[in-house]
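Dear support,

I submitted the protein below through the web form. The confirmation email said the job was done, but the results page showed an empty box. After a refresh the structure appeared. I'm attaching both so you can tell me whether what I see now is the final result or a partial one.
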Amino acid sequence: MKAPNLFFGPLQDMRADIEERYEATGINYHLIPGSIEDFSKLEDFAAAVIKPLAG
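What the results page shows now:
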């Protein structure tokens, strides 16, 4: 079961969920919580999820 407002799991699964939800709803704006202290985690997320979606 997928939560409509949460992403969880491996980064590749998150990317697939974002693509699927975009195709279904057209929504392409998501907030990713974090802080400057967790910047390296945000960079990992961006590299695995956001950059591939950006084409």
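Response: this is the final, complete result; the empty box was a page-load delay. Residues 11-54 form one domain.
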